Amino acid sequence: MLGQSKLTLLRINFAKKVSGCVLDCASGTGAYHRFFNTEDIVSLDLTFSQLKNLKGKRVCADATCLPFRENVFDVLWAFAFIQCIKSDLLEYIQDWYRVVKPRGKIYILTPNRESPVNVLLRFFHLKNWASYEGTRRLYSAKELSRYGKVYGEIWFLPMLCRLLACYPKLGHTLIVEIEVKK
User: How many domains, in total, are found in the chain?
Assistant: First the structure.
C-alpha cells in the first residue's frame, strides 16, 4: 500500500477549497479533515481500524460501491487510493457522480504513470509507482483529463508548481478536479 498521502502545499490548498457536506473516500487517518472548510464530513474506509479514531460520521464500506442515496454530498474527496483499485476509474466514477450534488466537486489524487521521474525509475529498475504494495492500476494525465481539470505536482520539487500548472503530464502525482454536471 502507498500509505498516507503527503501534506503538500498544493494538496492543502485543494483541501481548503472543500466546503459543504464532504465524503472522504478511503479516509485513512483523516489527514485532510483539519483543512476542510466544514465539519460536515463522512469518513469512509474499507476497514474499521482506519476509522476508529476519527470524529464524526464514519462508514465502513467500499468506495467503489457507495451505500448512499443520490445527491447527498457537495464534495467527494478521493486522495491516494484509486491506484489500489483493480478496475478502471470509469467503472465506479458513475457511482461517485450519483452521490454528489449538481455543481458539486470530486477531487482525486493519484500517481502519474507517465511522469518523467517514474519513467526513469522504471528504466533503471528502481522502486517506481507500480512497485508499491497495493498498486493495481496507474493513470496518466491524458487519461484523467476526460473527467476534469488535471494538475501536476512533484512533491519533492515544489518550486516547479507553476510549470506543472501548464504541463500537468510532467507531474509525479496528479490531482483531478471534476465539476459534477447533471
Answer: 1
4 located within any domain: no
Asked whether residue 46 is domain-assigned, the answer is yes
pTM metric for this prediction: 0.91
The verdict on residue 97 lying in a domain is yes
List CB contacts of 145: < 8 A, sequence separation 6 or more.
none
Structural domain span for residue 21:
9-179
Does 171 fall in a domain? yes
Domain harbouring 26, CATH code: 3.40.50.150
C-alpha cell at 25: 473516500
Strand 173-179 versus strand 149-153 pairing type? antiparallel
Distance CA 174, CA 147 (A): 13
Q: Provide the residue-wise pLDDT of the chain in tens; the chain has 182 residues.
A: 444 568 888 899 999 999 999 999 999 889 999 999 999 999 999 888 889 989 889 999 988 889 999 999 999 999 988 888 888 887 889 999 999 999 999 999 999 999 999 999 999 999 989 888 888 889 999 999 999 999 999 877 777 777 777 789 999 999 999 999 97
